[in-house]
């Protein structure tokens, strides 16, 4: 086998690194594994320090750097920042510091919203950190200054998902409180700008009605990962390989394994790693 081809195979065989504040980034893992079943994934969930949403940006950036540093000591070829709050806090600084391509969730979500919206009236929901950073709005406006944008922080949504309360009357009430004003603005697309929101998309869709298209940033970033791997010739060509999934968490592995196994529809094992 020629040396160059061997080197290419070794690189392509490496894993996609995925980081998130906790379990929510598994929505991104799920989409990547659906789209690219032969790719391996190494995941870090900072469960001991989640939620990131209410934390100062500087702190979120430091935490993200610690996870990226950990992943860079593993066999990875790319880093996906699955967390919207961590992407909003400092994607460009991770990109500058990391030896691998680093992708965030915001730009793919923005592209998809622009592609789907015909009226240019777009809603964005996310954590307090993501919404206060205006990261989605800035990117959307860079592409089209004439958009009508409505943003709303929905901090209780993460708690509803974490505590398995999505199918309750209280959750519906909270969803109406957050989302009715956006519907009143006649949006035609709604960006789910938080890892947890795809896990309650049925309720969100019910509340905003069928005419509003939900933009799931997990699906969008998986498509982006695929496109970058293909363009840079880094996709794993060994389709008969068994993909390896490895999960690391900073908090208790047990609750992560329980939620993660349900979400990914397979038994997963997580290992606890203390950061910093
Ligand atoms: N992962 C976070 C995000 O996407 C949501 C949970 C948190 O606040 O840590 O913004």
Features:
six-stranded parallel sheet; four-stranded parallel sheet; 49% helix; binds D-glutamic acid; Rossmann fold; 2 domains; 18% strand; 10 strands
What would you note in describing this structure?
The protein has helices at residues 3-12, 26-35, 57-72, 84-97, 106-116, 128-133, 135-143, 155-162, 169-184, 201-208, 217-231, 253-264, and strands spanning 15-20, 41-45, 76-81, 102-104, 121-126, 148-153, 189-193, 213-216, 245-249, 270-272. The protein folds into two domains: 2-104 and 220-272, Rossmann fold (3-Layer(aba) Sandwich), CATH 3.40.50.1860; 106-217, Rossmann fold (3-Layer(aba) Sandwich), CATH 3.40.50. It has 276 residues and is an alpha/beta fold. α12 links the parallel β9 and β10. It is built from twelve helices and ten strands. The model has no long low-confidence stretch (mean pLDDT 94). A six-stranded parallel β-sheet has the order 4-3-1-2-9-10, sandwiched between helices. Strands 6-5-7-8 form a four-stranded parallel β-sheet, with helices on both faces. α3 packs across α4 and α9 (169-184) packs across α10 (201-208). Helix content is 49%, strand content 18%. The structure holds D-glutamic acid. D-glutamic acid (DGL) is lined by residues 20-22, 24, 50-53, 83-85, 127, 130, 158, 194-196.
Q: What is the CATH first-level class name of the largest domain? A: Alpha Beta
Q: Measure the end-to-end span.
A: 42 Å
Quick one: overall form?
globular
Structural class: alpha/beta
Ligand list: D-glutamic acid
CATH architecture label name of the largest domain: 3-Layer(aba) Sandwich
Q: Please, how many helices?
A: 12
Helix percent reads 40-55%
- How large is the radius of gyration? 18 Å
Strand order of the largest sheet: 4-3-1-2-9-10
Describe the main β-sheet briefly: 6 strands, parallel
One letter per element, helices H and strands E, the order comes to HEHEHEHEHEHHEHHEHEHEHE
Tally of separate domains? 2
Arithmetic mean of pLDDT: 94
């Amino acid at each position: 086998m020629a040396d160059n081809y061997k080197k290419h195979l070794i690189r392509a065989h490496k894993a996609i690194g995925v980081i998130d504040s906790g379990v929510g980034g598994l929505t991104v893992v799920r989409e990547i594994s659906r789209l690219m079943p032969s790719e391996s994934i190494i995941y870090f969930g900072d469960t001991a320090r989640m939620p990131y949403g209410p934390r100062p940006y500087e702190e979120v950036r430091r935490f993200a750097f610690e996870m990226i540093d950990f992943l860079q000591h593993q066999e990875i070829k790319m880093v996906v920042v699955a967390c919207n709050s961590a992407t909003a806090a400092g994607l460009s600084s991770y990109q500058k510091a990391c030896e691998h391509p680093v992708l965030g969730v915001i730009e793919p979500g923005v592209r998809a919203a622009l592609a789907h919206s015909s009226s240019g009236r777009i809603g964005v929901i996310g954590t307090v950190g993501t919404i206060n950073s205006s990261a989605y709005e800035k990117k959307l406006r860079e592409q089209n200054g004439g958009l009508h944008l409505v943003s709303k922080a929905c901090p209780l949504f993460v708690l509803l998902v974490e505590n398995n309360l999505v199918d309750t009357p209280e959750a519906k009430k909270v969803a109406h409180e957050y989302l009715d004003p956006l519907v009143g603005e006649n949006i035609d697309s709604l960006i789910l700008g938080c890892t947890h929101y795809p896990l309650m998309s049925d309720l969100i869709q019910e509340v905003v009605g069928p005419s509003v298209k939900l933009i799931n940033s997990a699906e969008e970033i998986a498509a982006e990962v695929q496109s970058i791997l293909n363009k840079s010739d880094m996709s794993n060509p060994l389709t008969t390989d068994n993909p390896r999934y490895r999960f690391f968490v900073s908090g208790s592995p047990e609750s992560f394994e329980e939620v993660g196994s349900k979400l990914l529809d397979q038994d997963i094992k997580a290992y606890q790693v203390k950061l910093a």
